[in-house]
Here is the input.
Amino acid sequence: QKEVEQNSGPLSVPEGAIASLNCTYSDRGSQSFFWYRQYSGKSPELIMSIYSNGDKEDGRFTAQLNKASQYVSLLIRDSQPSDSATYLCAVNRDDKIIFGKGTRLHILP
Amino acid sequence: DAGITQSPRYKITETGRQVTLMCHQTWSHSYMFWYRQDLGHGLRLIYYSAAADITDKGEVPDGYVVSRSKTENFPLTLESATRSQTSVYFCASSEIAAGAYNEQFFGPGTRLTVL
Here is the structure.
């Protein structure tokens, strides 16, 4: 089993709808969970971090963590064309971060 | 400028040549990291450093050398470049890394082509 797994996509979502991105991880000892957004040709940009079970909201973004199921998700409400990017899920392992390969999100105008 | 910078942004070199990629951060973060990103592989950790003069291998260290004599700089050297090292290289830094709260912040990347 890969350490951090994401569906590669592309995930196509109509503008204004909710985009739901999912990630599973294998290390039960992980404590920190991150979502990064990466536009084509650019560097990853941290958009959300979550450390406790439950939901964490920041503007149009909500991160959800379920440690029992080893599952973390990102919801993007009112999706905009500018949200079209690759979203990387990342999970800590000891003093390092392990990244998933990313999900490509395409917002349809 | 504040933040994390990388140089050069683009580099073309030939097989067998030595290449050094520079990374500089102004946050005084303790930890610094080097990743490479390739299609189909995502981000893979090459080396990281917990502090000046402390470095450790990541997932794909072969063919690379790092040093960290100053907290703010973390150069990555390809001793004898190979075509398989053609990639986009990202440097990142974080305040702490042990356990939780190790949010990493990335530089703009260096696109390296080895002919």
In short: Chain A has a mean pLDDT of 94.
